[in-house]
């Protein structure tokens, strides 16, 4: 009896171990019968890609393998997600246009005249009412109607005539002559000119319109060597140094 009972217990234990092994094999086989897909992404080669995402022409992630289950769903969600939007960079705004090269000088302009190697001649000079500047050695030099480059050439020519062998001269505009604004503004008068001014900014400098001002157009008088020109212009019209702005009165 004891031998038969021991045989039955050993046979039962072997059967139970075989059942557990078969169950474990089936479980592992179900999990591993299909390998989950793996996503490979191209490495990001520079700091811009790390900061702003993939460039516009970067290859999409490549998915290899196939299968189902939660791993497959998660991998497919990453693979089908939209690529990062490309980053655009706006070009810097252009600097305001300077017209010093073609600007015609007149009384009231203040100039910076540089004579290289001649500290005694390098200085700031104002164009007087007669339209000239007065410099050491060469005296008065007509400036009205000239461009800065033309005036520099005239100064160099006079210095070359018995004073300096090969003078190098540059003329810059240090301050423009003022503009004038009259009529229906809060503070009519004379004001320093600022480059790239418009009629509207001139009215603002003068304190704005008065309650009776006509606010859509003004009259601008522009004076050049050929004479004066008067025109009725809108508020966005550019102004030049020496211009006179007249703001009229509205009738109703």
Side by side, the strands of the main sheet go 9-8-12-10-11
For the termini, the CA-CA separation is: 131 Å
Shape: extended
Compute the average pLDDT.
75
What is the overall number of helices?
5
User: Which structural class should the secondary elements be placed in?
Assistant: alpha+beta
The major sheet is characterized as: 5 strands, mixed
Structural write-up:
- This protein is of the alpha+beta class and 252 residues long.
- The chain is 27% helix and 23% strand.
- The chain has 5 helices and 12 strands.
- The protein has a 5-stranded mixed sheet, with helices on one face. Strands 4-3-7 form a 3-stranded antiparallel sheet, with helices on one face. A two-stranded antiparallel sheet has the order 1-2.
- A hairpin with a 7-residue loop joins β3 and β4.
- The radius of gyration is 43 Å and the shape is extended.
Short structural description:
By secondary structure, this protein is α+β, with helices and mostly antiparallel strands.
List keywords for this structure.
252 residues; 12 strands
Write the layout of secondary structure elements.
Elements: H1 2-32, E1 38-40, H2 47-52, E2 62-64, H3 69-79, E3 110-115, E4 123-126, E5 132-135, E6 139-142, H4 148-160, E7 169-175, E8 179-183, E9 189-191, H5 199-205, E10 217-224, E11 227-234, E12 244-247
Parallel strand pairs: 8-12
Antiparallel strand pairs: 1-2, 3-4, 3-7, 5-6, 8-9, 10-11, 10-12
């Amino acid at each position: 009896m004891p031998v038969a009972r021991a045989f039955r217990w050993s046979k039962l234990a072997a059967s139970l171990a075989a059942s557990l092994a078969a169950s474990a094999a089936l479980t592992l086989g179900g999990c591993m019968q299909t390998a989950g897909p793996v996503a490979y992404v191209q490495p990001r080669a520079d700091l811009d890609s790390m900061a702003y995402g993939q460039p516009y022409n970067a290859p999409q992630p490549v998915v290899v393998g196939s299968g189902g289950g939660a791993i497959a769903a998660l991998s497919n969600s990453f693979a089908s997600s939209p690529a990062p939007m490309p980053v655009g960079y706006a070009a810097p705004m252009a600097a305001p246009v300077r017209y010093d090269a073609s600007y015609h000088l007149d009384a009231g302009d203040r100039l910076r005249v540089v004579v290289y190697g001649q500290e005694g001649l390098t200085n700031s000079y104002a164009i007087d009412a007669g339209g000239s500047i007065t410099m050491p050695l060469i005296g008065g030099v007509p400036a009205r109607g000239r461009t800065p480059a033309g005036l520099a050439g005239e100064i160099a020519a006079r210095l070359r005539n018995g004073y300096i062998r090969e003078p190098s001269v540059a003329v810059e505009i240090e301050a423009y002559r003022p503009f004038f604004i009259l009529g229906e503004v809060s503070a009519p008068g004379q004001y320093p000119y600022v480059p790239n001014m418009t009629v509207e900014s001139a009215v603002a400098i003068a304190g704005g319109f008065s309650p009776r001002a006509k606010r859509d157009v003004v009259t601008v008088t522009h004076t050049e060597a050929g004479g004066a020109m008067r025109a009725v212009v809108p508020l966005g019209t550019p102004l030049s140094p020496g211009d006179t702005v007249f703001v009229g009165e509205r009738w109703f």
